[in-house]
Amino acid sequence: MKRLDRCWIRATQADDRTWPPTPRDRHGASVVRRCERSGLSLLELLAVVMLMGVLALVVVPRVSGGAAKAKNSCCEVNAAIIDIQCALWRRDYGAWPASDLQVIGKDKTFFPEGLPVCPHGHAYKFDGSEGRVIAHKH
To answer: What ranges in 3-138 are assigned the alpha helix state H?
Structure first.
């Protein structure tokens, strides 16, 4: 075998008959091409980058917004728990608890683990005229 122009050439006899016919050089030797490629073409690289971009467009929005939604849901659940416990307080004592929720928060009957805290750091306040926790902005 001779090496010619980055491809291998196999010398064969002129009467070598194969089907389909193999490409031959000008001397009648069949040419076996094994090009030595050591990298990616620009088109292959572009296809890979494009696929990674599409995957990033699908995955990143789903992953990045999860923490904020979880905190908001936790805050809503905590407010609902406080609403229920305040209704039980009114049933037992005949009046709504104070708006700052200090007294009911210390009572282990209603909140054994203490008053729930907003994950955003805001304090819950209670409106006795409506009997609901006052919503706060995040």
So the answer is: 42-64, 66-93, 102-106
Q: H or E stretch including 32?
A: none
**Residue 88: CB atoms within 10 Å:** 13
Q: Which amino acid is at 9?
A: I
What's the burial of 1, exposed, middle or buried (CB within 10 Å: 0-12/13-18/19+)? exposed
pTM value is 0.56
Q: Which two tokens stand for residue 33?
A: 């091409």
Which residues lie closer than 8 Å to 9 by C-beta, 6 or more apart?
Answer: 1, 2, 3, 25, 29, 31, 32
Instruction: Give the model's pLDDT for residue 9.
Output: 47
Other beta carbons within 10 angstroms of residue 101's beta carbon come to 22
Q: What is the pLDDT of residues 100-138, one digit of tens each?
A: 999 999 989 999 999 999 998 888 999 988 889 988 877
To which H or E segment does residue 127 belong?
strand 125-127
| Cis preceding-peptide flag for 20 (omega within 30 of 0) | yes
* DSSP 8-state class, residue 95: S
Please name the residue that has the structure tokens 């699908």. 58
Helix-then-strand count for the chain, H and E: 3, 4
